[in-house]
Amino acid sequence: MKLDRLHLRLRILLFFVFMTLGGLGIFGAGLWLGSQREQDGFLFAEIIGGFGFLGLMTWIWYLFDENLAKPMQWLAGALTARAHTDIDEDLNPKTARYLGDLAPAAREVTRHLAQTRNALAETVAQETTRLIAEKEQLVAMAADVPFGVVLCSGTHKIAFYNSVAAEMLDEDHHHPGLDHSLFDFLEPDPILDAYNRLCASGQGPDMVIPTLVTTVLGHRTLCARMRLTHAADESDISPGYLMSLDDVTSDLAIVGQASTLVTRVFADLRSHMGSLRTAIEFRKRDAALAADPEMTEGLIDGLEAMLRSIGEHFVDYDGSRGSLWPMEDVSAHQIVNAVKARLDAIDLTVEGLEETRLHVAALPIIVLLAHLCDRIVHEHGGRVPSLIVADEDDCPMIALGWSGDPLPFDTMTSWLVDPLDFGVPGVTGRSVLQIHATDCWPEFGRFGRSVLKIPLPIPMGQKLPALQRGVEYDFDLMQRTPPPMLTKAKLSDLTFVVFDTETTGLLPSQGDEICQIAALRVVNGRVVEGEQINRLVNPERPIPARSTDVHGITDEMVKNAPTIEVVGAQFHSFARGSILVAHNAPFDLEFLRRHEAGIGKAFTNPVLDTVLLSAIVFGQDAEHTLDAICERLGIKIPVEQRHTAMGDTIATAHAFIKMIGMCEARGIETFGDVIAEGRKHKRLIQDLNTDLEV
Amino acid sequence: MGERKVLLVEDERPITKAIATLLEANGLLVDIAPTAETALTQIASNSYDLLVVDASLPDQSGFALCQTLRLREDFDDLPIVLMTHRNTEIEARKSKAVGATAILTKPFGPAQLRVALAPFVQLESLE
After folding, report:
1. Does residue B40 belong to the interface with chain A, where contact is any CB pair within 8 Å?
2. What DSSP assignment string belongs to A277-322?
3. Which range among A312-321, A546-555, A656-665, A680-689 shows the weakest confidence by mean pLDDT?
């Protein structure tokens, strides 16, 4: 009969019977051996009995520890984990097989808990499906808003932003994130001024203040419109605010450029004209001067100098015409559709390369084309032209084609002086052509057709990567007040950056370097999906094959990647104001801190280590590898993701969130509490918060 | 072979004087038309070997005059040199599209005038 099949009480009875019989046996054997000696028989019997009993007790302790104490500790940890997190995995009965009915009973309890939890989750899921669908619709709408939107708390921390705002605020890979201060990205003075006036107005959300604000590095000027979320009152003297952002950098540059050009032209002309008119006045009134060849030669020289100067300004003007109006990269398809939409009474046909990309002031071009189509229809007795998109002499071109006589040049010229109707006064077809540094003309096309051609020669702007549409938000951040001291801050009120590195080896002191770094942000106990970085790093040394076998990163993959000086600075920016979290953090931080001088930043963030959290939650003797922790917490890491920087970061983040919940359930609620508990396990891992007093 | 005739369509007196003087010095007969309308009248009653047309005329543009002439079958082959004001690719394409045989961008000097007119008339003394 196997021992683990006996009832627990019977086994404990047998245990004590065995212990008693064993003790009696040992002492009996000692007495018998002592009686065989001529001298010191009792002493010998006591020594034999004593050592024998000690050995028996040690063996019994070992059996008790292995089969009862350790499984009980494991069972307690597993039950705690299931009580506070949603682990569905069954308890492994083999681990506690000597605990009799306790393990099956615990299994039943956890199964019942999981079933109840699943049933509850299912009910909640059904109830919230409609709300989620509505939320997704709202998120999609917010993501599609064509200007930046940011919602901030009264402490100027970001609680909502859309991708357009992220693009505007991002300078030098300084990406905005939830709970970041708005003043990390925008100059504070104009915002504080507008905010204070909004609060003082007493009008709450009914008042809007527009203001111009620059980004902290000065790369962009934004037009911001601010509005409070609610009126400031005694219960909330710092209301949050909503801000819409529009990038007016290029508009201001254009105004400045045009203004500079005009100023230069007038300054030059004034100077030349003053001298020439003075000389002419004198020449008119003095016959001797009029006959003086030196005077005539001087006047011609002056005239030539003025003409040369005007000619130079013409060159400047021609060169800048394309940039005197905000240009955008659009497909011809978009232009054609917009023209058709404006001419809904005319059934316009389209020919040619609609996928052609154009760099144009879209609205003026659309209005001009619609105007020309409309005039052609009237000129040719209702005959509808085709809109043709083509490449001619390596230059994109839009043309209008029709069967019949060519358009008289003078008629076309007269159409170009008609004012165009799109809300900007004084704009004509001619001025639209001028801002595109182009012209238009009628000519015979192929197959006896007439065409009116408009080349669009301005080269495409630098292609920007497609903008990831979306929003990030956590409205709980609107209510959050900054803690007086970090150590007193509740864990749920802190922002964490979980990260992991892949390296060329394990010894930074012997030249091993980082070859990949990944990080994500955890705010309010959840991973913020849109806020993560994952960068390959050129380690500037070969990656050993044994390391490539672990993480899969090759020399070829990193040869064009930025160095740690660049990526380290991006990571530092990403992690500002946050608690760093890693699994075995001293290892990763050692690699980073060796490059602080090159990066130009110090990694002084407080640090939490999931190894220490595991020791706090599961006991120091438990296994604290990332795999073991994840297994205990029911976190699955896909095999292909394991030992990749982002895969391990995601696993660490989810383990961290679950263990934080378990800590809070045990009354370990503040950052200081965790640090104090962690210091009880400092033989496990280096304390990286030695400067914090708890 | 008789004397070759050139019609200079230009309204600005100094440039008309300068071009006409140089062409006549090469044995060419030069008629001057200060407007497009005058030019069309003179073309109707005279036969010209070459037209030198300014792009900016008081009554209509030189581009329009070119287009008008090219739309008439009897002037298909008449060489027309168009004097434009912009030295751009777009200006060149526009000139060619309306039927100019060659273009001459202002400002220009005698040497550039000789190069532009050389395919159509003999201009030895401009060397």
Report:
1. no
2. HHHHHHHHH-HHHHH-HHHHHHHHHHHHHHHHHHHHHHHHHHHHGG
3. A312-321
Closest to A671 (Cα-Cα) out of A586, A580, A585, A587: A580
CB contact under 8 A, A409 and B71: no
User: Is A442 in Cβ contact with B93 (below 8 Å)?
Assistant: no
CB A134 within 8 A of CB A124: no
Characterize A240-278 residue by residue with b for buried, 16 or more Cβ atoms within 10 angstroms of its Cβ, and e for exposed.
bbbbbbbbbbbeeebeeeeeeeeeebeebeeebeeebee
Collapsing DSSP to helix, strand or coil, A369 comes out as: helix
Q: Which of B61, B86, B89 sits opposite A409 (nearest CB)?
A: B61
Q: Which residue of B has its CA nearest to A395?
A: B90
| Minimum distance, in Å, between the CA of residue B119 and any CA atom of chain A | 25
Would an 8 Å CB–CB cutoff place B86 in contact with chain A?
yes
Give the pLDDT confidence score for residue A519 in this predicted structure.
95
Percent of chain A with pLDDT over 70: 95
Is the dihedral angle over the CA atoms A315, A319, A322, A326 positive or is it negative?
negative
Q: What is the pTM of this model?
A: 0.57
- DSSP string computed for A574-599: HTTTSEEEETTHHHHHHHHHTTHHHH
Q: Does B87 touch chain A (CB under 8 A)?
A: no
Q: Which residue does chain A place closest to B93, by CA atoms?
A: A441
For residue A395, the chain B residues in CB contact (below 8 A) are 89
pLDDT at residue number A4: 61
Candidates B56, B59, B58, B33; CA nearest to B46 is: B33
b/e sequence A570-591, b meaning 16+ C-beta within 10 Å = bbbbbbeebbbbbbbbebbbeb
CB pair distance less than 8 Å for A439 and B67? no
- Select the residue of A393, A409, A457 nearest B63 (Cβ to Cβ): A409
Burial class (CB in 10 A: 0-12, 13-18, 19+), A393: exposed
B29 has a chain A CB within 8 A of its CB: no
Residue among A437, A441, A455 whose CB faces B98 most closely:
A441
Cis peptide upstream of residue B107 (ω within 30 degrees of 0): yes
Kindly report the nearest CA distance between residue B65 and chain A, in angstroms: 9
Residue A184, pLDDT above cutoff 60: yes
Q: How far is B72 from chain A (nearest CA, A)?
A: 12
Tell me the chain A residues in contact with residue B71 when contact means C-beta distances shorter than 8 Å: 406
pLDDT digits (tens, 9 = 90+) for A379-425: 877 677 888 888 887 788 898 988 877 888 989 999 999 888 777 77
**For residue A469, what pLDDT is reported?**
63
Read off the pLDDT of residues A134-167 as tens digits, 9 standing for 90 and up. 777 777 777 777 789 999 999 999 999 998 899 8
Q: What is the pLDDT of residues A441-492, one digit of tens each?
A: 998 766 678 889 999 887 665 444 455 667 888 888 887 777 778 888 888 8
What does DSSP assign to residue A66?
A: I
